[in-house]
Amino acid sequence: xxxxxxxxxxxxxxxxxxxxxxxxxxxxxxxxxxxxxxxxxxxxxxxxxxxxxxxxxxxxxxxxxxxxxxxxxxxxxxxxxxxxxxxxxxxxxxxxxxxxxxxxxxxxxxxxxxxxxxxxxxxxxxxxxxxxxxxxxxxxxxxxxxxxxxxxxxxxxxxxxxxxxxxxxxxxxxxxxxxxxxxxxxxxxxxxxxxxxxxxxxxxxxxxxxxxxxxxxxxxxxxxxxxxxxxxxxxxxxxxxxxxxxxxxxxxxxxxxxxxxxxxxxx
Length: 267
Hints:
- The chain folds into 3 domains: 10-56; 70-123, no CATH class; 133-265, Nucleotidyltransferase, domain 5 (2-Layer Sandwich).
- The relative contact order is 0.10.
- Helix 5 packs across helix 6 (114-123).
- Helix content is 44%, strand content 15%.
- It has a 6-stranded mixed sheet, with helices on both faces.
- By secondary structure, the protein is of the alpha/beta class.
């Protein structure tokens, strides 16, 4: 028989998260003590890591979630593109699915489940799943992930993120997106952090994205990304060096003979 579903108050969720995150208690033991399922515990942990304490106060609506209108959807896209979460008091510098849900609640008074938020992000082309397609799934990358990238990140306890950029516009109306591009970083579990740039990403916007990753995530953070022709690699490398180990980068690039190579920038 499954565990009886009950309402868990936000303060209890915070106690559960802190017991695991700060006191290093076993998640299953904590779940048993509080009489909740282990899956709920892991969901609260995920929300806390993405959206902080505020995310634990968000309640999932039972039954059919309230609808977000077409006008609200368009307004939501504009808010995400033109602002960052810190401007709304969320503390983070990059958007996540959980924080977008909190934004919908704040701006429109509508409480949406995380799957519903994911569907909205899908429609807006703002949902990233697993590794960025721009990195590819070649044997070259797979080999270096196993032999070089993951081992090096593991040595220093770095969080590994896959960074990519995407031109928006295939699903949403052209007057919504203009020249908008999605810049995203996704971890191995598919959890993404992102922003929308109103112009094609350049050296400055990628450096800004890196600074936001440092702000939001645990340090050190290592990113895997493909070199872009329009990026000033020397300037980008100087920025990473100046973070003193808080940010490192594995850069995938092609040599003149079209062979691939991966460079590491950082300490």
